[in-house]
Amino acid sequence: VYLLTDKFPKDEIYGLTSQLRRAVLSVVLNIVEGHARNNRNEFRQFLRISLGSLAETDYLLLFASRRNYLNEAEHDKVSDMRENCGKVLWKLMKSQ
């Protein structure tokens, strides 16, 4: 996502570019933080937050595509990655 957002218009640097990058990082960082808590219930809560960030990422990618900041192939590739990430998150949640 960082590589894709590098080509977004410069006037989006503090808007869409920043928001999308933060949402993507939030997915991973919430998993890390939740795991560090060493508490199953807290970990589950952080996994739910990660899923929310993943949903935010999905919408932002759609928005970027509609603004023609991403072509169809780029959008499809990153959407597939997001879908796979979501499946892993769900499995992780169910295992807790």
Automatic annotation (TrEMBL):
Pfam family, one: 23S_rRNA_IVP
Entry-linked InterPro entries: 23S_rRNA-intervening_sequence, 23S_rRNA_IVS_sf
Gene Ontology CC annotation, any one: ribosome
Residues in coiled coil: none
Domain of life: Bacteria
Keyword vocabulary terms for this entry: Ribonucleoprotein, Ribosomal protein
Protein name: S23 ribosomal protein
